[in-house]
Amino acid sequence: MERTEVENGLNLGDLVSVKTKDGFFAGKVEDFGESSIKLSNPKNGLCKRIAYDYIMEYDVGRLPSADMARIGLDTESRMVAIPGKDYVVGATPVTQRLYEKVMGENPSYFQTANKELDEAMQCILTREGDTQNNPVENVSWYDVVYFCNKLSILEGFTPAYSVDGERDPQYWGYKPHQKEPIGSKVCCDFSCNGYRLPTNDEWEDAAAGGEDYLFPGCDSMDEVSWNGENSNGVTHPVATKMANAYGLYDMSGNVCEWVWDSEDEIGSSHDNRGGCYSSSEDGCIFRTWGDGAASAFRYKNIGFRLLRKVC
Fold first, then answer.
1. pLDDT value, residue 61
2. What is the 3-state secondary structure (H, E, C) of the chain?
3. pTM
């Protein structure tokens, strides 16, 4: 669109939903520049400029619906509405990029900075980019709930998790990425609108996509997943395989995904779903449950996906 088309239809302070070639963005109009409009995220105040010639259309006073919602801290990370449900689910596993933006560090094993990787692995990862768009892994279940609450606070949502009644993770007495447990039981308030892990049932419903295939989206493992037969032993950028009918990628393969459900009452181990880059066909069948994994341990084949209640 031309600058005049945008400027004539909007005023400073308007709430607007903007459709671009990359998707939908929403915010309050802060400024009309020579070549771009400046929008601020109403939840966290972060600003983004969008070039006028990149805008396809806009809608004043209307924020995007849940199926096109994006995480404000990283607009490349998208949340997708699940039909008939009151929550949205991450279109992909959490990427190394988003994780580092929230936590300030990237603990992933599969990143080009890791000198422990052999030359062949380094070559594959380098050829595909800088791994920022690969799924984060090498994170414990405790690291993940810490991340969820920190992201929720950054975006102005009510955190779902609490430890001894405290929702702010900086007061949990926990230091991430140390392979240690959180000192007390982690509780979840499922009525909160903050980010959290899906339950087993929520994860499986999302993976099915309302269809009845063997894998999420079709009956061909290689079309939907990076697995033990095609990955060359490393993770790959998210959303490079086929999505399921809900628009969710990597529900099979690439990395297994932590979920809320625990193998025991004290939470020393938790379930993970979906299979990973080294999984066989049986491991990538999305209805297959992975073995419970130690909650405090960090595995280079386990990452996670976000869920958030929207009403």
1. 56
2. CCHHHHHHHCCCCCEEEEEECCEEEEEEEEEECCCEEEEECCCCCCEEEEEHHHEEEEEECCCCCHHHCECCCCCCCEEEECCCCCEEEECCCCEHHHHHHHHCCCCCCCCCCCCCCCHHHHHHHHHCCCCCCCECCCCCHHHHHHHHHHHHHHCCCCCCEEECCECCHHHCCCCCCCCCCCCCCEEECCCCCCEECCCHHHHHHHHHCCCCCCECCECCHHHHCCCCCCCCCCCCCCCCCCCCCCCCCCCCCCCEEEEEEECCCCCCEEEEECCCCCCCHHHHCCCCECCCEECCCCCCCEEECCEEECC
3. 0.78
